[in-house]
């Protein structure tokens, strides 16, 4: 075999390796390998466990089909998602302006920052009984509970974003004749947006945790109610359906919000 043929073979092998590397890279980015690995571990663990203790992925899928056949699963999902979305959006709408206000005013920050850092350590589930007394057992108590879960995460992140802004930027804007409102809109808000965005994403997790607790205690609809109700009949597969559904709902909501950040807020160095 001459040297030219050997060179061509080597080049061909290199090209094959590069293509394999690119395919593997794409698979890693899609997360498919992680999902397959998780399902494999779950299946193996379920095989050596009692179905009442740990149902298999197949048993969970069959339970989801049963729950979805009469539409009850989708009704539960709809109620939970509507509550989470309403509370999360309202919480952001209240928290972002307050975080900006506290961050830009030293006197206000001195007064309210200690209170924020005290109350934020009280978990939302501790307020379930009080919120039911104050707002009733209807939708208001659940939405306000999610607002509470969202509020402190977003407020603290917004405040951190404002405090991270260099004083030189603000002084430069003032030296060019910018008013306080212009500094807020064109300097402070754009610089704090990555922190606000991160806070909003983190608050999604808190919102889903809050809604499950609220629906377990005071609801007759929702995924949390379904999980709580399933334990009475030892339907572990239904519980796992609820867990998977909550994970998928949160995952899809996070990805949609991340896509929004990538497309709309990319120029503000938002990491999605």
Structurally, the number of domains stands at 1
In angstroms, what separates the terminal alpha carbons? 53 Å
Q: What is the typical, i.e. mean, pLDDT?
A: 82
Output the CATH class name. Mainly Alpha
- Profile the largest sheet: none
CATH third-tier fold name: MetI-like fold
Which spans have pLDDT < 50 for at least 5 consecutive residues?
Answer: none
| Count of discrete alpha- or pi-helical segments spanning 4 or more residues | 11
Number of strands: 0
What class do helices, strands and sheet pairing give? Answer: mainly alpha
- Write the element-wise H/E pattern from the N-terminal end onward: HHHHHHHHHHH
Q: In terms of topology, how is this protein built?
A:
Elements: H1 3-30, H2 32-47, H3 57-69, H4 72-104, H5 106-119, H6 128-135, H7 139-163, H8 167-175, H9 180-217, H10 223-232, H11 236-264
Description:
The chain is mostly helical and 272 residues long. It has one domain: MetI-like fold (Orthogonal Bundle). It has eleven helices and no strands. Helix 4 packs parallel to helix 7 and helix 8 packs across helix 9. The longest helix has 38 residues. The model has no long low-confidence stretch (mean pLDDT 82).
């Amino acid at each position: 075999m001459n040297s030219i043929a050997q060179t061509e073979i080597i080049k061909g092998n290199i090209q094959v390796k590069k293509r394999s590397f690119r395919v593997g890279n794409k698979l890693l980015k899609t997360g498919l390998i992680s999902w397959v690995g998780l399902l494999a571990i779950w299946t193996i663990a379920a095989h050596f466990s009692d179905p009442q203790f740990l149902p298999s992925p197949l048993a969970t899928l069959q339970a989801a089909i049963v729950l979805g056949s009469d539409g009850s699963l989708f009704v539960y999902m709809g109620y939970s998602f509507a509550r989470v979305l309403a509370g999360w959006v309202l919480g952001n709408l209240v928290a972002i302006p307050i975080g900006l206000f506290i961050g830009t005013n030293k006197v206000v920050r001195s007064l309210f920052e200690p209170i924020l850092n005290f109350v934020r350590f009280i978990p939302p589930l501790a307020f379930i009984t009080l919120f039911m007394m104050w707002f009733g057992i209807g939708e208001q108590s659940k939405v306000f509970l999610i607002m509470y879960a969202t509020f402190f995460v977003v407020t603290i992140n917004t405040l951190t974003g404002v405090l991270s802004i260099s004083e030189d930027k603000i002084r430069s804007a003032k030296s060019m004749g910018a008013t306080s409102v212009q500094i807020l809109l064109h300097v402070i808000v754009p610089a704090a947006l990555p922190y606000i965005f991160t806070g909003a994403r983190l608050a999604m997790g808190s919102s889903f945790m809050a809604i499950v607790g609220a629906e377990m205690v005071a609801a007759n609809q929702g995924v949390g109610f379904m999980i709580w109700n399933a334990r009475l009949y030892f339907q572990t597969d239904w519980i796992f359906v609820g867990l998977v559904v909550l994970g998928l709902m949160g995952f899809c909501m996070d990805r949609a919000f991340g896509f929004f950040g990538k497309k709309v807020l990319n120029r503000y160095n938002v990491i999605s």
